[in-house]
Structure formats: structure tokens, C-alpha cells
Amino acid sequence: MRLRTYVAREDDGTVLPGVAYHPATQGEDYLARSLDHDTLCANALMQAIGEVRGYYPESVFPESGNSLDCKSASMARQTCDNITNRASELMTEWGFDSGEVEE
After folding, report:
1. CA nearest 48: which of 102, 3, 93?
2. CA triplet 24, 78, 87: central angle to 5 degrees?
3. Which residues make beta-bridge pairs with 41?
4. Cβ neighbours around 27 below 10 Å, total
5. What is the pLDDT of residues 59-72, one digit of tens each?
6. Strand segments (E) across 6-101
7. Sequence-ordered list of residues with C-beta below 8 angstroms from that of 77, at least 6 positions apart, any chain
8. Using alpha carbons only, what angle is made at residue 87 by residues 86 and 89, rounded to the nearest 5 degrees?
9. Distance in angstroms (rounded) separating the CA atoms of residues 28 and 86
């Protein structure tokens, strides 16, 4: 799977956490232009984030665990969930509800 993502700066200066920021001065406009059917589809993005979240199963790293590993895994799962939620919002806003991005 070939996946290229770019992060747009929010109005308050924050960026989508956990995804590499690509320096661009036009933020969301740059992201919208860079999404094409060859590099990204909504399902592939969600699948990739889900795969990363899968590296930290709750059966191995329980939420109730006090170890540093459990706390780190919990934060990783939370970050993946936050990215998934924000990406879903943005893709819906930009018309990429499901399936491949159309030309």
C-alpha cells in the first residue's frame, strides 16, 4: 500500500497529531490538492491507522496496567482513535466519505 498524507494546520496553529507534518503554506488547500486516487483512499488511511492501533492490543497492554508499557500503549491507542476521528471528519467535509477518492 502506498500512502501519502499531509497535515493541515488548524486555525489555532495545532496540527493533526501522530501524522508527519508536511511544510506547506496553504494548509488544507495543499492537502486537498494532494489527495488523488493513486496515493490515497479513505479506506486505506483508516486501515493503516487501524494497523498501527493493532500493535498495542488491550489484551497485552491493559488500560488498568501501571507499567510504562501499558501507559504508552494506552496513549498510542488514544492517539490512533483521535487521528481516526479527525480524519473521518475531514474526509466527510471534503467529500471523501468512503472508497477511493474520485478524480
Report:
1. 3
2. 40
3. 100
4. 15
5. 999 999 999 999 99
6. none
7. 53, 56, 58
8. 65
9. 13
